[in-house]
Fold this protein.
Amino acid sequence: MPEQPGQPEEPGERAARPADSEAAAPQQPTSNRRAGMLIGLLCLLLGFALVVQVRSTTDASGLGAARQEDLVSILDDLSAREDRLRQDIATQEELRDRLVSGDDQSDTALAEALLREQQLAILAGTVAAEGPGIELTVSDPGAEVGPEVLLNAIQELRAAGAEAMQVGDVRIGVSSAVTGRAGLLVIDGIELTAPYTIRAIGDPQTLEIALNIPGGVVNTVSRAGGEATIEQQDAVVVSALRPVDDPEYARPAEDEED
């Protein structure tokens, strides 16, 4: 029989329909499986990252395995530092109020300038200083305490509020450098041999607590083969002086006019 006439099909339609239906059937399950595998892999990586982060944080802090008395010492140290900062803030606020509202502004400003000069001289190490503090003695019978141990002690004391320090006959300043080798340390070009004596002026209890925190100076010296002894004193004298170098490049800045 002759074929019935009808609408002609586009040449590409007859071939396209079977091809689409054949490709769609296997692609759907494959895509789902790949998506599921990818989601599972991402979850696994995320869980692994979280575990590593938690362990790293615990190891870095070092507080998880600390004893109760060690935690109390750390808390006391932080509380002392907070009290010192609050006291400094209160002092500065009181001075600000006196300068702003007082009738004797000139006298107050002059007295404050003289006081500031004395304080800066102490901090710069150009004048002798005395006050309560501690004396830290680091013995090193086996010549195993390196410069990094002594530098750690200086930095810890400074962070705990030490206002003036000297090691042996060397006054410690902001630019002091500790070099050399175990058994023969050098501070600012001056050789020192054990036992090393550090005199620091500040709150005695705060300074001693800072040195005794877990993993602190006392523990570090012990691990290095030495021994650290601390003695609180009501009157510590820091008599060593730092030389004053004339600046080669820096000059006082002139006030800019509005």
